[in-house]
Amino acid sequence: MSEQWVAARIKQKGIANTFLRRT
Question: pTM to 2 decimals?
Answer without folding.
Answer: 0.47
